[in-house]
Amino acid sequence: MRLVAAAVLLLVIPVTVWKLAASPSHPETSTTIYDPNPSHLWNRLYAVLFIREDSHGVQFGADSLDPLLWTETEHLLAEPSHERALRVLDEFLRTHAENLIHDPIKRAMLQRDLWAVFDWSVQRFPARDRPPYTKEKEELQARLAEVLRRLKLTPEELKSLPDNYSQATASGAFAKEYDPANRQRPFLPPNLFDPLGPWVCIQPSPESDSGVAKTHIWNVSGRSGFFVFVKLPEGRKATMDYFQSLWNFPQPWIPGPPFAADQALENPALPSFPAGTQVALVRRMTLFDNQGDLAASSITESVQIRVYHSITNMEERNFGNGNMAEIIKNSGQDFFEFKLSRPLLFSGKNGGLRAVAPDEKELSTFQTQGDDPLEGAPGRPPFAGKTLPEMQSCLWCHSGGGVRSLNSRSSLLKPNRLQQEPRNNDYGPIYWGDGAAISWKANHYDWGLLNGYWKSAPPRR
User: Fold this and answer.
1) What would the pLDDT profile of 109-126 be if each residue is shown by its tens digit?
2) Cα gap 123→348, rounded to integer Å
3) Are 389 and 358 a contacting pair, CB within 8 Å?
4) 461 part of a folded domain
5) Are residues 136 and 169 in the same domain?
6) pLDDT tens-place string over residues 395-450
7) Number of structural domains the chain divides into
8) Which of 48, 160, 164, 280 could form a disulfide bond with 229, CB atoms 3.0-4.6 angstroms apart?
9) What's the pLDDT score for residue 321?
10) How far apart are CA 141 and CA 177, in angstroms?
């Protein structure tokens, strides 16, 4: 396994961090994510790490896909949240609470969630004139690393995890195709992963270090694989032919603006796909096994679908006067999103996926500034920093008309390799994408640091 060289710098790791802390009690937020009893230790651990409150006492993050933690967040490092987090982690370790639940699905989800908090603590950067919390980060990391070590699944358990996307499409809870007469009705195509079906997965070049949807992989530090599927209305052959037309385009790149003339940009004159084209972005969970090896799982975490009901001349990321209704209209697109819900997944309903409502709002950690909208002055209004419905936020990166909104189009242009049908369909349509995401994560500092904690920890008792 390839690890970041920085991991070897972990020479001394506290070995007694999970002793019982003698500290005053503090009321903890309750949840029933993992067990009907809110006092169950897994519930309490999830609540202390994932559920946040603003200055008005409004709670967020009860079932959010990612922890509500930003680059400059002080939550879990400043008091009293730091003490509460350490206390619950200490209790988990002292009582060997990893043995309370053996369901591989629940263990995989808790591993996933704690891994996200660990990576955040590594990447966190203090705001100007704010403390770095170096000691607090190390205290949190050491405990999280030990819990993660105890939650590792065997390779066989990883293979037993469900294909929840197939479960979702088979449940009958969602339409199977786009309805032009009912453009807000969410749909999940059952043939999305069919290697011979109408949806074509854009394959990253073997030289790629982070797959196709690079920004998405970077945002979650490689803990998920992201895959882009395209379907032209005439079917698979038409989609492959369109990919070839992009690759054959005589001038796919143009110089950047004067302040960045050394950078190349995709030519805005690239031929566009026709109206009726659909694009899907799939996020799948990456985990690690008890051998310490990263592995792609079969669990789909989210699906975002864009349908081009018309092809407009809208320039890339041109927001004009900021009128969102006008921007949506000019984009020529309809947006749909599905997210993983822990209660649905654990109860076996709808494959664990839920459709995001058109007007649904949620605090986002994707492509945001470092400041934490839940921290700050008591008079700060609730839901600060998030004014648009969640699906409308996709327009910040995908507002252009036609191919100008397909940010992964760069993977379809020379000098990348021409998109071709896979030689072995048994691998499925996302085989190469899985490998790219795992390779990216394996060579990054946060993964090396986590392995460093594991190698430096005392023998497990």
Assistant:
1) 999 999 999 999 999 988
2) 34
3) yes
4) no
5) no
6) 777 878 899 999 999 999 999 999 988 877 777 777 666 778 898 999 999 999 99
7) 2
8) 280
9) 63
10) 45
